[in-house]
Amino acid sequence: MKAKSTPVIQGNVSQKAAPQLGAHTSTSGGLWNAVYSGKEIGCDVIQLFSKNQMQWMAAEILPESIERFLRAVEDTGVQPVAVHDAYLINLGSPNPVTFEKSYSSFVDELKRCEALKIPYLIMHPGAHLGSGEEGGMNRIAGGIARAFDEAGIIKTAVLLETTAGQGSNLGYTFEQLKYIMDLTGLEKYIGICLDTCHVFTAGYDIRTEKAWQHTRREFDSIIGLEHLKVFHLNDSKKGMGSRVDRHERIGRGEIGLEGFRALVNDPEVRHIPMILEIPGGEIAYGEDLRKLRKLIGSDASIKKAP
Question: How far apart (Å, rounded) are the C-alpha atoms in residues 257 and 305?
């Protein structure tokens, strides 16, 4: 494994005291439009796809596109915290052809993040497809480690996204995530994106301040809070422990507003970027960003929202 320096977040996003809120924004018409769209709906930070999420590979990003993207960041002050990798990627696959396609696509994602100066690449760990959890996790960790060797010295870190555990998807327990992280040997170049819908439907209660604090302490004891780099804020259409991944707008699902109020006011995590991935498009994003900001400093204890 090549020696690497510590990843740097442009603009020191993660070091600001107030919650940095944002959304996954569209790159329609050009990567830079994700930044301008984020500004329009009130984002401090954004997540985006660097290519079509349903394609294995894409053409190299042109220098002029990179320049326009970085200029948009400078013009707006909106920070592109993360790229989400393509949905086709499955480093847990036991099929050698699928694994190699996934691996090549994953390396490409790392290089695209580096070109755009984006600090985090968020990935669904992968699914074992019936081959067994341990074997699947071993393939995931091995693929990530190999990708960093091939990509060379870069500043982008990989974040394993917590999953709901639907089907044979891995990463639905903190123990599984810790296992994969440790096996990569990447240390500071591997972390976690905690999706609130996913952890809830995987069986971790976050509906109240007490419940959230219990889950946060459990995460800290198993993985370490210092490895939590990004939140995906999503309510859930399905109940706790259902193992079904169905996002809902903030306060309208089974988690409810009290859980999100506890999270955005928690001094242990409020410095971590928080990104919406809810249904409803940009109008819903804008409304729910305003809703979350109203919860900051609030003592309200409301389980549902209209």
Answer: 7
- How far apart are the C-alpha atoms of 205 and 145, rounded to whole Å? 32
**Structural domain boundaries in the chain:** 10-295
| Cα 231 to Cα 218: distance, rounded to the nearest angstrom | 16
Task: Answer whether residue 8 shows pLDDT above 60.
Answer: no
Which of the listed CATH numbers 3.20.20.150, 3.60.10.10, 3.30.1330.10, 3.40.50.150 matches domain 10-295? 3.20.20.150
What is the reported pLDDT for 17? 66
Centre a 10 Å sphere on the Cβ of residue 232 and count the other Cβ atoms it contains.
24
**Lookup: tokens for 58:** 């894409």
Q: How many CA atoms lie within 13 A of 304 on its CB side?
A: 4
pTM for the structure as a whole: 0.91
Task: Indicate the range of 1-5, 74-78, 203-207, 215-219 predicted with least confidence.
Answer: 1-5
